[in-house]
Design a protein that fits this description.
alpha+beta; seven-stranded mixed β-sheet; five-stranded mixed β-sheet; 24 strands; globular
Length: about 475
């Protein structure tokens, strides 16, 4: 057995693979996000550990963990977990969708003029480094006590193994990594007044990062097994979907939305607000466009309209099966990254009337997220990314209607695969399998990182595509007009 653990934003998910690569057990535990001030988004790192412990013990209670040979980790990227001398958190972690550090991005890029060349990325509020610049200015007593900074999954690793380690795919999202060279950048760290000693040791995704501590192993009903380096959630999701070669790509419908293209070449485009990060496998990179709110928009409108559930709201939308060309939704509930890099962008319903009901609002949300993905796709294509085949992953992958809307807006078929909703946890388990079997063998890589079986393909609908073309133009114009009004 191989255990994959994914530290998400809304939940921790754990998954077991057998030796044939089949999923034999899953569990999850929910997480809450705290928003104490506008633009803020935080979580208590202890909640990650408690949720992980709960979910794995639930697998153990089912008698599934005794044969685990290795563990892999995945997690939400960019979160700043600041630890003191005793390796305990000094404050809540500042998450990937926190927008407070926009001014800190300017400070950091001014301090390190070559930052975009070093990192291959534009400084954005979501990244880890600007959060520490913000901390230095606004919470100097906490900053002065900071001795280590870890990403979310790596804090859980510390609790599991006692080792402070990260992998290259997750570390690339800190803005402290020289992404082309796959090493920490002392220049970027100096721009934040941080020493190299504050950073974890780096390994590749399928390499060993440590061993499960004896007391944790006993509680989880397994041996003191090795723990793989793992990956940031998007790279892990790509591993789970078999997206490892140029031309393969994934579209993630999670809390955020990500269009991810695998590559064997480092090909940055920071001016397009696109990310270029290390992949979870050695000598591979990826290009990534990120929208900050995707499936979370569906959760939001479900709560807003008091629908029974997200599935129930989707059913209402399907029963209506009508799109209102005058009703637009801007899905910027947490600001936006690609292509705007605008933490102050706001969510908007435009074109409301007396006839607007819950189903119409829900349909507009599905379409608005699809339009945001169209912007994300445009940046990737302009940057030279190749999208020969796009697999859909994440919780939003359960909706066939959303798939049809997305395919029609993007003008390309979208492939849905088995296990799409647990992509990052699946990828983490596969990295554990690679650790156990030997990741340096190309034949092993091809055997483990297969594409899961196709369940269906969402094809573009020509009538919908024709309707969406002017709506997409209006969507883009609406953001530009509101940006001018609020600038």
């Amino acid at each position: 057995m191989y255990l994959g653990i994914d530290i998400g934003t809304s939940a921790v998910k754990v998954l077991l693979l057998d030796d044939a690569g089949d999923v034999v057990g899953t569990e999850s535990a929910p997480l809450e996000v705290s928003r104490p001030h506008p633009l803020w988004s935080e979580q208590d790192p202890e909640d990650w550990w408690s949720a992980t412990d709960f979910a794995v013990q639930a697998l153990a209670a089912r008698g599934l963990t005794s044969d685990v040979l290795a563990i892999g980790l995945s997690g939400q990227m960019h979160g700043a977990t600041v630890l003191g001398e005793d390796d305990l958190p000094l404050r809540p972690a500042i998450l990937w969708n926190d927008g407070r550090s926009a001014a800190a991005c300017e400070v950091l890029e001014a301090a390190v003029p070559a930052s975009r060349e070093i990192t291959g990325n534009l400084a954005m509020p979501g990244f880890t480094a600007p959060k520490l610049v913000w901390l230095r200015e606004h919470e100097p007593e906490i900053f002065a006590r900071t001795r280590r900074v870890l990403l979310p999954k790596d804090y859980v690793r510390l609790r599991m193994t006692g080792e402070a380690v990260s992998d290259f795919s997750d570390a690339a999202g800190t803005l402290w990594l020289d992404v082309a060279k796959r090493s920490w950048s002392e220049a970027m760290l100096a721009g934040c007044d941080l020493p190299l000693a504050a950073m974890p040791r780096l390994v590749e995704g399928p390499e060993m990062s440590g061993q499960l501590r004896a007391e944790v192993a006993e509680r989880w009903g397994m041996k003191m097994v090795p723990v793989a380096g793992g990956a940031g959630d998007q790279a892990a999701g790509a591993i789970g979907a078999g997206v490892i070669a140029p031309g393969t790509a994934s579209l993630s419908l999670g809390t955020s939305g990500v269009l991810f293209a695998a590559d064997e070449t480092f090909r940055p485009n920071p001016e397009g607000a696109m990310h270029t990060f290390c992949h979870a496998l050695p000598e591979r990179w990826h290009q990534m466009s990120v929208i900050l709110s995707a499936a979370s928009c569906l959760s939001w409108v479900t709560r807003l309209t008091h629908a029974q559930s997200e599935a129930a709201l989707i059913s209402e939308i399907e029963a209506r099966d009508i799109s209102d060309p005058n009703l637009l939704f801007l899905p910027y509930l947490s600001g936006e990254r690609t292509p705007h890099n605008d933490p102050n962008a706001s969510g908007v319903f435009f074109g409301l009337s007396h006839d607007t009901d819950r189903a119409a609002l829900g349909r507009a949300v599905l379409e608005g997220v699809a339009f945001a993905f169209a912007d994300a796709q445009a940046v990737l294509l302009e940057s030279g990314a190749v999208l020969d085949e796009v697999s859909v992953i994440g919780g939003g992958a359960r909706s066939a209607l959303w798939g049809e809307v997305l395919a029609s807006v993007l003008g390309r078929p979208l492939v849905y695969r088995e296990g799409a909703e647990v992509g990052p946890a699946l990828g983490a388990a596969r990295l554990a399998m690679l650790l156990d079997r030997g990741a340096n063998e190309e034949s092993v890589l091809a055997e483990v990182c297969t594409k899961p079986e196709t369940t269906h393909v969402a094809e573009p609908d020509s009538d919908l595509a024709a309707q969406y073309e002017p709506m997409l133009a209006d969507y883009r114009d609406l953001y530009r007009r509101l940006k001018k009004e609020t600038a």
